[in-house]
Write a structure and sequence with these properties.
Elements (H helix, E strand, L loop, with lengths): L1 H15 E9 L3 E8 L5 E8 L3 H6 L10 E7 L2 E7 L4 E2 H4 L7 H20 L2 E2 L8 E4 L2 E4 L6 E2 L29 H17 L10 H10 L11 H7 L1
Antiparallel strand pairs: 1-2, 2-3, 3-5, 4-5, 6-8, 7-10, 8-9
Helix pairs in contact: 4-5, 4-7, 5-6
Length: 236
Protein backbone atom coordinates (compact mmCIF):
# COMPACT_ATOMS: atom_id res chain seq x y z
CA UNK A 1 0.00 0.00 0.00
CA UNK A 2 2.86 2.35 0.85
CA UNK A 3 4.57 1.62 -2.48
CA UNK A 4 1.29 2.15 -4.37
CA UNK A 5 0.83 5.61 -2.86
CA UNK A 6 4.50 6.50 -3.52
CA UNK A 7 4.20 5.42 -7.16
CA UNK A 8 0.87 7.26 -7.57
CA UNK A 9 2.30 10.44 -6.01
CA UNK A 10 5.38 10.32 -8.22
CA UNK A 11 3.22 9.95 -11.34
CA UNK A 12 0.96 12.80 -10.21
CA UNK A 13 3.98 15.04 -9.70
CA UNK A 14 5.30 14.27 -13.19
CA UNK A 15 1.88 14.90 -14.71
CA UNK A 16 0.82 18.03 -12.82
CA UNK A 17 4.11 19.81 -12.09
CA UNK A 18 7.08 21.07 -14.07
CA UNK A 19 10.54 21.79 -12.74
CA UNK A 20 11.55 25.44 -12.68
CA UNK A 21 14.99 25.15 -11.12
CA UNK A 22 17.21 22.62 -9.40
CA UNK A 23 18.02 24.22 -6.04
CA UNK A 24 20.30 21.61 -4.51
CA UNK A 25 21.79 18.22 -5.33
CA UNK A 26 23.70 15.89 -3.04
CA UNK A 27 24.40 12.20 -2.50
CA UNK A 28 21.11 11.92 -0.59
CA UNK A 29 18.94 13.44 -3.31
CA UNK A 30 17.67 16.65 -4.88
CA UNK A 31 15.70 19.77 -3.97
CA UNK A 32 13.86 21.46 -6.83
CA UNK A 33 11.60 24.44 -7.34
CA UNK A 34 8.53 23.20 -9.22
CA UNK A 35 5.42 24.87 -10.64
CA UNK A 36 1.90 23.49 -10.78
CA UNK A 37 0.89 23.44 -14.43
CA UNK A 38 -2.70 24.48 -13.72
CA UNK A 39 -2.41 27.23 -11.12
CA UNK A 40 1.16 28.38 -11.73
CA UNK A 41 1.82 28.17 -7.98
CA UNK A 42 5.37 27.27 -7.00
CA UNK A 43 6.42 24.62 -4.50
CA UNK A 44 9.58 22.91 -3.27
CA UNK A 45 9.94 19.23 -4.17
CA UNK A 46 12.39 17.10 -2.23
CA UNK A 47 13.47 13.67 -3.46
CA UNK A 48 15.86 11.93 -1.11
CA UNK A 49 17.00 8.71 0.49
CA UNK A 50 16.68 8.50 4.26
CA UNK A 51 14.10 8.97 6.98
CA UNK A 52 11.17 11.31 6.26
CA UNK A 53 9.45 10.96 9.65
CA UNK A 54 9.92 14.65 10.52
CA UNK A 55 8.26 15.71 7.26
CA UNK A 56 5.36 13.31 7.89
CA UNK A 57 4.80 14.74 11.36
CA UNK A 58 4.85 18.28 9.97
CA UNK A 59 1.85 17.43 7.77
CA UNK A 60 -0.38 18.07 10.80
CA UNK A 61 1.21 21.39 11.83
CA UNK A 62 1.06 24.97 10.63
CA UNK A 63 3.39 27.68 11.88
CA UNK A 64 4.28 31.02 10.21
CA UNK A 65 7.93 30.30 10.98
CA UNK A 66 8.02 26.90 9.27
CA UNK A 67 7.20 25.93 5.67
CA UNK A 68 3.94 24.04 5.26
CA UNK A 69 4.40 20.40 4.22
CA UNK A 70 1.62 19.41 1.80
CA UNK A 71 2.50 15.78 1.11
CA UNK A 72 5.16 13.21 2.02
CA UNK A 73 5.35 9.79 0.40
CA UNK A 74 7.87 7.03 1.11
CA UNK A 75 8.82 3.68 -0.35
CA UNK A 76 11.24 2.05 2.09
CA UNK A 77 14.01 4.68 2.27
CA UNK A 78 13.02 6.63 -0.87
CA UNK A 79 11.05 9.79 -0.18
CA UNK A 80 9.16 12.51 -2.02
CA UNK A 81 8.10 15.65 -0.13
CA UNK A 82 6.09 18.56 -1.52
CA UNK A 83 6.30 21.68 0.62
CA UNK A 84 5.60 25.40 0.56
CA UNK A 85 8.05 27.57 -1.35
CA UNK A 86 9.21 30.36 0.94
CA UNK A 87 9.93 33.43 -1.15
CA UNK A 88 12.13 35.93 0.63
CA UNK A 89 15.70 36.87 1.49
CA UNK A 90 18.13 34.18 2.60
CA UNK A 91 19.91 35.18 5.79
CA UNK A 92 23.19 33.67 4.60
CA UNK A 93 23.21 35.98 1.59
CA UNK A 94 22.16 38.99 3.66
CA UNK A 95 25.03 38.49 6.12
CA UNK A 96 27.50 38.81 3.26
CA UNK A 97 26.64 42.51 3.04
CA UNK A 98 25.62 43.63 6.54
CA UNK A 99 24.96 42.59 10.12
CA UNK A 100 21.66 42.70 11.98
CA UNK A 101 20.79 45.23 14.64
CA UNK A 102 20.08 44.08 18.19
CA UNK A 103 16.38 44.81 17.65
CA UNK A 104 16.24 42.78 14.43
CA UNK A 105 18.19 39.95 16.01
CA UNK A 106 15.81 39.78 18.95
CA UNK A 107 12.74 39.64 16.69
CA UNK A 108 14.19 36.97 14.41
CA UNK A 109 15.61 34.85 17.24
CA UNK A 110 12.24 34.86 19.02
CA UNK A 111 10.53 33.65 15.84
CA UNK A 112 13.10 30.91 15.39
CA UNK A 113 12.45 29.84 18.98
CA UNK A 114 8.78 29.44 18.09
CA UNK A 115 9.67 27.36 15.03
CA UNK A 116 11.95 25.14 17.11
CA UNK A 117 9.31 24.77 19.80
CA UNK A 118 6.97 23.23 17.21
CA UNK A 119 9.67 20.78 16.12
CA UNK A 120 10.67 19.93 19.68
CA UNK A 121 7.02 19.45 20.67
CA UNK A 122 6.72 16.67 18.10
CA UNK A 123 9.97 15.06 19.29
CA UNK A 124 12.06 16.35 16.39
CA UNK A 125 15.50 18.01 16.35
CA UNK A 126 16.41 20.26 13.39
CA UNK A 127 20.20 19.75 13.74
CA UNK A 128 21.15 22.34 11.11
CA UNK A 129 20.17 25.81 12.34
CA UNK A 130 22.37 28.21 10.37
CA UNK A 131 21.99 31.41 8.28
CA UNK A 132 21.48 29.52 5.01
CA UNK A 133 18.46 27.73 6.51
CA UNK A 134 16.64 30.92 7.50
CA UNK A 135 14.53 32.87 5.00
CA UNK A 136 13.15 36.29 5.87
CA UNK A 137 9.70 36.68 4.33
CA UNK A 138 8.64 40.21 5.18
CA UNK A 139 8.77 40.38 8.97
CA UNK A 140 8.58 36.60 9.37
CA UNK A 141 11.70 34.49 9.81
CA UNK A 142 11.13 30.99 8.41
CA UNK A 143 13.32 28.03 9.36
CA UNK A 144 13.68 25.71 6.36
CA UNK A 145 15.34 22.43 5.31
CA UNK A 146 14.66 19.44 7.56
CA UNK A 147 16.91 17.02 5.67
CA UNK A 148 19.24 16.72 8.67
CA UNK A 149 16.36 16.63 11.17
CA UNK A 150 15.64 13.50 13.19
CA UNK A 151 13.28 12.18 15.83
CA UNK A 152 14.78 12.00 19.32
CA UNK A 153 14.82 8.41 20.57
CA UNK A 154 14.65 7.82 24.32
CA UNK A 155 17.52 5.72 25.55
CA UNK A 156 19.70 6.03 22.45
CA UNK A 157 23.37 6.78 23.17
CA UNK A 158 24.01 8.66 19.94
CA UNK A 159 22.62 9.71 16.58
CA UNK A 160 22.28 7.06 13.89
CA UNK A 161 23.86 9.43 11.36
CA UNK A 162 26.22 12.32 12.08
CA UNK A 163 24.91 15.43 10.32
CA UNK A 164 25.21 19.17 10.84
CA UNK A 165 27.30 22.13 9.76
CA UNK A 166 30.75 22.72 11.20
CA UNK A 167 30.78 25.79 13.40
CA UNK A 168 27.05 25.57 14.13
CA UNK A 169 26.61 21.92 15.13
CA UNK A 170 26.65 21.17 18.86
CA UNK A 171 29.47 18.94 20.22
CA UNK A 172 27.08 16.02 20.77
CA UNK A 173 26.31 15.95 17.05
CA UNK A 174 29.81 14.61 16.48
CA UNK A 175 29.06 11.39 18.35
CA UNK A 176 29.54 12.46 21.97
CA UNK A 177 25.87 11.71 22.75
CA UNK A 178 22.42 11.85 21.16
CA UNK A 179 21.33 15.24 19.82
CA UNK A 180 18.17 16.74 21.25
CA UNK A 181 16.46 20.11 21.73
CA UNK A 182 19.58 21.42 23.49
CA UNK A 183 21.54 20.86 20.27
CA UNK A 184 19.29 23.30 18.40
CA UNK A 185 19.66 25.81 21.25
CA UNK A 186 23.45 25.59 20.82
CA UNK A 187 23.19 26.27 17.07
CA UNK A 188 20.75 29.13 17.62
CA UNK A 189 23.23 30.71 20.04
CA UNK A 190 25.94 30.58 17.38
CA UNK A 191 23.51 32.06 14.86
CA UNK A 192 22.61 34.94 17.19
CA UNK A 193 26.28 35.78 17.63
CA UNK A 194 26.92 35.68 13.86
CA UNK A 195 23.94 37.95 13.22
CA UNK A 196 25.36 40.54 15.62
CA UNK A 197 29.10 40.27 14.98
CA UNK A 198 29.52 38.34 11.74
CA UNK A 199 31.81 35.92 13.57
CA UNK A 200 31.75 32.71 15.59
CA UNK A 201 31.66 33.41 19.37
CA UNK A 202 35.07 31.74 19.72
CA UNK A 203 36.45 34.55 17.54
CA UNK A 204 34.34 37.46 18.77
CA UNK A 205 31.64 37.24 21.40
CA UNK A 206 28.70 39.63 21.22
CA UNK A 207 28.82 42.38 23.81
CA UNK A 208 26.91 42.71 27.06
CA UNK A 209 23.73 40.76 27.71
CA UNK A 210 23.81 39.26 24.23
CA UNK A 211 27.17 37.73 24.99
CA UNK A 212 25.81 36.17 28.18
CA UNK A 213 22.87 34.68 26.26
CA UNK A 214 25.18 33.24 23.58
CA UNK A 215 27.53 31.85 26.22
CA UNK A 216 24.73 29.98 27.96
CA UNK A 217 23.34 28.65 24.67
CA UNK A 218 26.74 27.29 23.66
CA UNK A 219 27.84 25.49 26.81
CA UNK A 220 29.64 22.23 25.95
CA UNK A 221 27.54 20.41 28.53
CA UNK A 222 23.94 20.39 27.19
CA UNK A 223 22.56 20.40 30.74
CA UNK A 224 24.05 23.87 31.29
CA UNK A 225 22.24 25.42 28.33
CA UNK A 226 18.71 26.82 28.51
CA UNK A 227 16.31 24.07 29.59
CA UNK A 228 14.21 24.57 26.46
CA UNK A 229 13.59 27.17 23.74
CA UNK A 230 10.75 28.69 25.77
CA UNK A 231 13.27 29.64 28.46
CA UNK A 232 15.46 31.21 25.78
CA UNK A 233 12.39 32.94 24.32
CA UNK A 234 11.67 34.48 27.74
CA UNK A 235 15.29 35.60 28.02
CA UNK A 236 15.05 37.31 24.66
Amino acid sequence: MVFIFYAWFREALEREFEQVKLLKESERGTVALVRHRGSGQRFVLRSFVGNAEVYRRLLDWECPNLPKVFEAASDEDRNLVLEEYIQGDNMGTMLEDALFSARETRRIARQLCRALWVLHSMGAVHRDVKPENVVLRGRDAVLIDFDAARIHKDGAEGDTQILGTTGFAAPEQYGMSQSDAASDIYSLGILINVMLTGRHPSQQLAEGRWGRIVTRCTQVNPAKRYKNVLRLLDEL
